[in-house]
Amino acid sequence: MDLSYFFELFVGGLTRGSIYALIALGYTMVYGIIKLINFAHGEIYMIGAFTALIIASVLSFTGMNPVLIFLIASVLAIFFSAAYGVTMEKIAYTPLRGSQRLSALISAIGMSMFLQNYVLLAQTSDFLPFPELVPDFKFLKPVEHLISSTSFLILITTAIVMVLLTYLIKFTRTGKAMRATSQDAKMAQLLGINISRIITITFIIGSSTAALGGVLISTHIGQLNFYIGFIAGIKAFVAAVLGGIGSIPGAVLGSFVLGWTESFGTGYISSDYEDVFAFLFLIIILIFRPSGILGRPENKKV
Amino acid sequence: MLKIENIQTFYGNIQALQDVSIEINAGEIITLIGANGAGKSTTLMSISGLEPARHGKITFNGKDITHMDPDKIVQLGIIQVPEGRRIFPYLSVSENLDMGAFLRNDKEEIKRDIEYVYSLFPLLKERRNQQGGTLSGGEQQMLAISRAIMAKPKLLLLDEPSLGLAPIIVQQIMAIIKKINKEQKTTIFLVEQNANLALKLADRGYVMETGRITLSDSAKNLRENDDVRKAYLGI
Q1: Domain B2-233 CATH class label
Q2: DSSP summary character for residue A272
Q3: Is A199 on the interface with B (CB under 8 A)?
Q4: Partners of residue A177 in chain B, C-beta under 8 Å
Q5: Interior angle at CA A191, CA A186 and CA A193, nearest 5
Q6: How confident is the model over B145-201, as pLDDT tens digits?
Q7: Which of A52, A234, A262, B70 has its CA 20 to 30 A from that of A184?
Q8: Residue among A173, A193, A296 minimizing CB distance to B71
Q9: B96-130 confidence digits (pLDDT tens)
């Protein structure tokens, strides 16, 4: 067996998994709090990428340092996407709170189509090139055939986001309130937790990490169009279900498992069946563990 | 302190409360007894703002809270321990207590109050790192009351704290409720199906039947009332 090829696939899977994880976090957190599969979440990722592209294109005329441009574009992309996420929640989901789950789901699908077509009309249906802003890291020179600079950036950024998020959820007052709300929203209200605020915060966090994922993948691949959010969104959703929807560690684990499945599957078997591996794996896991790898079985209330 | 005036609460088109009026004075222990489905829990939910009354008025220290948001009502000092305890199952015991103090910022006093509830229920201190869902029913009830104490209630609403617990645990919980009322000067509104127990503890009581208040008197008089004895005390 070719070890360097194996390692290349391993890193490829890890990179993919990181991007899935950044998106899947939003799915799983929103589901945890309001029990809604936010199908428009992938579009937030796409809007993040587009915002970064627009800002980077404008700033590149100023002759600014590419790294600085990248940072500014990323921060603004996060900011814009968070605003989109919160607005989406207020427009499409808040009015439906308390109605059937199905209504909110349909609303989410509608929101997804709306945002896709909005970007399609406002921008273009063509693939647009994303400028090269990330420099080649010198210290990666000896292993550059295994791991690219952008892959490295994705892995590091994802790791940092995970650490920060773990701290937030585990130790801060807001994080504890988020967990409490997802476990028993009514009780949370009886203790003075403002549910609407918690939901808003959840959408801000989920949209921000998705936007970050969008910016990172665009620099990695070097191009984007209005449709990238759809397929990435579905995959991240699969990852979240695989790991156990509602569970944050589950979403991360599911993402890496999915990333590696796709990477090794395409590398060793056939690249024609990339998507087949993902869904086949999902089906197998769900047969044996219906609530996902780390998911908790639904509480049955008497 | 709390004044409920002719409230009517509905679930959709079904009327659960019909002209309910209750008055609670500061420092009292008031009980509301009645059969299953009489509307006792609905009354508490209307006070807490989760099932707001459609008609009528609820005031707390003169302030109209009928349509206030639940978190604002908690901020005023009205804390409910709902039926079934509702411990957060995947939060640890100490995190459950932290959630009780969610709206507070006085770190030093929070620490002191945590020590206070641990002194009331030493068992909780032993299990402070255990997940709430792993506690027994009695321990969960202790935690639920402790969590409410952490919110510094002026008025504590208790919904069936004796439900499903062994008699010895019930005695212990009732003693603690009395203690909180005495030591912390917390006003208590106790909803119970176990009328015998509730009327022994309370100063005054209300009897509820199918969404209406049918009787109200001192606990002593209610204990001696023939109708109450027949219907609720099983004598």
Answers
A1: alpha beta
A2: G
A3: no
A4: 99, 102
A5: 75
A6: 999 999 999 999 999 999 989 999 999 999 999 999 999 899 999 999 888 889 999
A7: A234
A8: A193
A9: 999 999 999 999 999 999 999 999 999 999 999 99
